[in-house]
Amino acid sequence: MLRWKYKNQNQLLIVLLVVGFFIGVIYENIVSKSQGATTELFLKSNLQRYLQIDVIAGKYFWYVIKDRVFSLLLICVLSCVKWKKLFVSLCLILIGFFAGTFCVASVLHLGIKGILLCIAGLFPQMLFYGFLYGMLFIYWFHYPARQWNRTKTLFIFILFIIGLVLEIYVNPLVVKYVISIL
To answer: What's the pLDDT tens digit per position in 48-100?
Structure first.
């Protein structure tokens, strides 16, 4: 069984996320120097095209539902493995890694404005998704010392629904506004 040498194990979760972020930053800097720009998402022409697109909430709703429900279910199923701490650690490192590569790619294409676009892309739904996944990761990391109950399940469900609604109806407006001022 894995033993962590941290007084507060929740600090370790943050450290793993930050380590993943810095690995992603280093990776993206090395790859972008050797292979050129790694993503076309942040090209000015693509951003201008996004301004012209009308997001149809009905179609976008089913896309987001499918994507987010699948992700949540996959993480919940994979958390049933015997080595929960290792699973949580790898998840946090990967989340940090992808965040680091995404931030560097945005800065390489748009400069400091890229950070603003990254924040806009995550706001406001990530406040709820982050809290939701944080609760799950902390529970799994401390398992079996912490107990799960119906109240936590209901709270996770409410956070998930609020995150979905914000991602579908509010986030496209926020991103369009930020792109228009870039």
So the answer is: 888 888 878 788 889 999 999 999 999 888 888 888 889 999 999 999 999 99
Helix (H, G, I), strand (E, B) or coil at 138: helix
> 168 is written with which tokens?
């579908």
Helices and strands in the chain: count of H runs, count of E runs: 8, 0
Half-sphere exposure of 30 (CA within 13 A, CB side): 6
Residue recorded with tokens 């290792």 = 86
DSSP helix/strand/coil, 148: coil
Helix, coil or strand: residue 92 = helix
150: which 2 tokens? 């119906």
The answer to whether 23 and 100 are in contact (CB under 8 A) is yes
pTM (global) more than 0.90: no
Q: C-alpha distances in angstroms, 5 versus 12, 20, 140?
A: 9, 19, 18
Quote the DSSP letter at residue 81: S
Tokens 């929960």: give the residue.
Answer: 84
Instruction: Enumerate residues 6+ apart whose C-beta is below 8 A from 110.
Output: 42, 117, 182
Amino acid at 20: G
